[in-house]
Amino acid sequence: MSSAGGKIRAKNARNAEAHRRGQTKPRPAYAERAMTSKKPAVPAWAVGMVCFVVIGGVFFELARLFL
């Protein structure tokens, strides 16, 4: 048997024993972790780049239409 398998079994045994003693705390659900995250889902520079492209495209289309 590989040493990694033995290490995994030992760690599993420690975790199982801690769980039986009630020393583990549950990990919050992904939705709860995402709600408490201070980091926005989309970086500000990406939003700025999209706005720049859209507003610039509208500006050039209006210039092409009227000039």
From TrEMBL:
It is found in: Membrane; Endoplasmic reticulum membrane. InterPro entries: ER_stress-assoc (IPR010580). The chain crosses the membrane at residues 42-63. Keywords: Endoplasmic reticulum, Membrane, Transmembrane, Transmembrane helix. It comes from the Eukaryota. GO terms for cellular component: endoplasmic reticulum membrane. Residues 1-37 are annotated as: Disordered. Its main location: membrane. The keyword Transmembrane helix applies. It is a single-pass membrane protein. Interacts with target proteins during translocation into the lumen of the endoplasmic reticulum. Protects unfolded target proteins against degradation and facilitate correct glycosylation. Belongs to the RAMP4 family. This is Stress-associated endoplasmic reticulum protein.
